[in-house]
Amino acid sequence: MTRGYHDIGGDQAGSVPQQELPWLHWEKQVEAVRNLLGDATRRIISLDELRRGFESFGVEKYKKLSFYRRRLEAMIDILIEKEVVAREELEAEIARVRARWRTARGGLP
Amino acid sequence: MTVRFRVGDTVKVSDLGKAGHIRTPFYVRGKVGEVIQFCGFFLNPENLAVGNTAGPVIPLYRVSFRQKDLWPHYEGSPGDKVLIEIYDHWLTAAPGITSGKCEAERSS
């Protein structure tokens, strides 16, 4: 039977950690962007499309990334795949925003 | 697409051997359960996963499985169930087969 590396229902997993994890600001932003991309107006990326994205990462990358990092990386992959943005365009924007932050923080790394 | 199953029908989950994004977990494939609700018609997530939103819509059912049928060493109450929504094309009719018989078949 074909079984995806994410399809782990029923596997032994040890004890369940009981502590509450903080929901980080950037994680909320990832979810906000995902909602906008998938809403009825835009329909750019469906939830199933996003899932297909991180289910195609390969097991090593999948296991290395957190829940929201997976979603973020899958959104990027699919936006590039659909030619909504180009990789170069995204990288240029990341560099621009990073530079703006450095300036705002007074030249700190 | 017609609604093939009714509430109370016994169904077996197929193993379609599909690659890509699917919504039928590994642990219910080949298992027998009971339809407990018709959930409505929805776009097939396997098509949505590759950006195909054209349809058609397909029936989705809520299926009940006995926990003890899913896990070989289940130690909870024999009445414990797992409820999962499964799309029409993953199900085949399994009239006359009860979850209990399925258990017996597996252990033989």
Strand tally of chain A is 0
Proportion of strand residues of chain B: 25-35%
Give the uncertain stretches of chain A in residue-range form.
none
Distance from first to last alpha carbon of chain A: 50 Å
Main β-sheet of chain B, in a few words? Answer: 5 strands, antiparallel
What percent strand of chain A? under 5%
Radius of gyration of chain B: 14 Å
Please indicate the count of domains of chain B.
1
Write down the CATH class of chain A: Mainly Alpha
The level of helicity of chain B is 10-25%
Q: Count the helices of chain B. How many?
A: 3
Radius of gyration of chain A from CA coordinates: 17 Å
Average pLDDT for all residues of chain A: 93
Mean pLDDT of chain B: 89
CATH architectural arrangement of chain A: Orthogonal Bundle
Number of domains of chain A: 1
Would you list the SSEs of chain B in sequence order as H and E?
EEHEHEEH
* Major sheet summary line of chain A: none
Structural features, described:
- The complex is a heterodimer of chains A (109) and B (108).
- Chain A is mainly α.
- Chain A has a single domain, classed as Orthogonal Bundle (Cyclin A, domain 1), CATH 1.10.472.
- Helices cover 57% and strands 0% of the residues of chain A.
- Chain A contains five helices and no strands.
- Chain A has helices at residues 25-38, 47-55, 59-64, 67-81, 87-104.
- In chain A, α1 (25-38) packs parallel to α4 (67-81) and α2 crosses α4.
- Chain A is globular.
- In chain A, 15% of the residues are buried.
- The model of chain A has no long low-confidence stretch (mean pLDDT 93).
- Chain B has three helices and five strands.
- Chain B is of the alpha+beta class and 108 residues long.
- Chain B has one domain (10-107): SH3 type barrels (Roll), CATH 2.30.30.50.
- The chains are: A mainly alpha (109), B alpha+beta (108).
- The A-B interface holds A 1-4, 7, 9-10, 43, 46-49, 51-52, 55, 82 and B 15, 17-23, 25-27, 29-30, 45-46, 48-51, 53, 70-71.
